[in-house]
Design a protein that fits this description.
This protein is mainly alpha-helical. It contains twelve helices and no strands. α11 (about 195-205) packs antiparallel against α12.
Length: about 240
């Protein structure tokens, strides 16, 4: 880590700020942060809904379905990217169906849409498992008391569920965001039309042997991710975190 931080100085102190002064690297960072934020929000919404459902209801095949939904945890990112190509690539299912319908061959695997769906598929299992465990430990007496006092479903969601699950939401959001920011295998497979920072870093030190710039970009990526993780931990530990 010390050597990583020291490397950019070999090319001058301005190298540390290359991500801010060069539009190519700045755009790559914005793309990565934007994609990670959208994936995080979608993962929290879907993951919390599915997790709460599994926590509240028991039915035949529940464990099988839960195991199926968490299956992506057993795959590396590059395999998730391969799945996305099978679905939305040039020879994928979507292209075959759209061509059969006379609409030409649609592809969605190699740009923002493909990365979003692949990242979402990769992140959802963690959110589902986390929310299921957290919701199962909730004190349902609070919800029953709210119903007894005539609270609406919206009021119960706002005053019971959201405060109770706030620490879980913060922790899950930080993990999903960090995972999306640093995802390489999936991006390496799919990011041909949408540049993200891990691929930019990889290109700099493999194609151009520019280790100083690659180190500078790595520091920037690490700082953004670390700041999000830091504030998530700090806020979750705050006495007012669930108010």
């Amino acid at each position: 880590m010390v050597w990583l931080v020291a490397l950019p100085a070999q090319k001058g102190w301005a190298t540390y700020f290359a991500i801010l002064t060069h539009s190519k690297y700045w755009l790559s960072l914005i793309n990565t942060v934007g994609l990670s934020l959208i994936v995080t929000i979608a993962t929290l919404v879907l993951g919390s809904a599915v997790g709460i459902f599994f926590a509240r209801y028991r039915f035949v095949g529940r464990q099988v379905l839960l195991s199926f939904l968490t299956l992506p945890l057993s795959f590396p990112g590059v395999i998730i990217g391969f799945f996305m190509i099978l679905l939305g690539g040039r020879q994928g299912l979507v292209a075959d169906v759209s061509e059969a319908l006379g609409a030409g061959r649609w592809t969605l695997a190699y740009g923002f849409s493909g990365l979003f769906l692949a990242y979402l598929y990769f992140s959802l299992p963690r959110a589902i498992a986390t929310y299921t465990a957290a919701a199962e430990k909730m004190d349902l007496a609070l919800e029953e008391a709210a119903r007894t006092m005539g609270a609406s479903r919206y009021a119960i969601l706002r005053d019971v569920w959201i405060p109770e699950l706030a620490p879980t939401t913060l922790a899950c959001a930080a993990i999903v965001f960090a995972t999306s920011m640093g995802a390489f295998g999936t991006a390496f497979t799919l990011a041909t039309k949408f540049e993200v920072l891990p691929i930019t870093i990889y290109s700099e030190f493999t194609n151009y042997a520019n280790f100083a710039l690659a180190a500078s970009l790595s520091i920037a990526l690490g700082l953004v991710t670390w700041l999000v993780m830091y504030f998530a931990r700090r806020y979750s530990d705050s006495p007012t975190a669930v108010i």
